Amino acid sequence: MPKAKKMKALSDFCDGAKFLPITKSFLGVVAENGRLDQNQKIYDALEEYTLAAAGQKKATVTSAQALTPEQLKDLTAKLGAHVGAGEELKVETKVDPKLVGGFTVAMGEDFFDLSLMSRIRQMEQELSKPV
Hints:
By secondary structure, the chain is α+β, with helices and mostly antiparallel strands. The protein is built from five helices and four strands, in the order αααβαβββα. It has a domain at 57-128.
């Protein structure tokens, strides 16, 4: 699709969605630079900056099965040790059955993988090494 047609479609979309002019302009710059496929990363980075400005830190916990309220409370308390003084921890949970068991935690630039799937992959790598 020609770039001019993409820009027109984006402009029409922003107008229809009643975006603020600054948002429309920002998306236009992103589109002009061929980075519309990076929207999720841009959103995540902006959210992280916004939370940091509000004294909050976000942790995304992805587990193989939904966590019970007690499990979530215990995990939140343990994750609190990784939060600076004066920061509030905001925990978001997701479920991904592909993890088989356990969970992963993404918190800023830190990533903790305590899933069964990662252990299985480690074992597969060890077993595939030549003797």
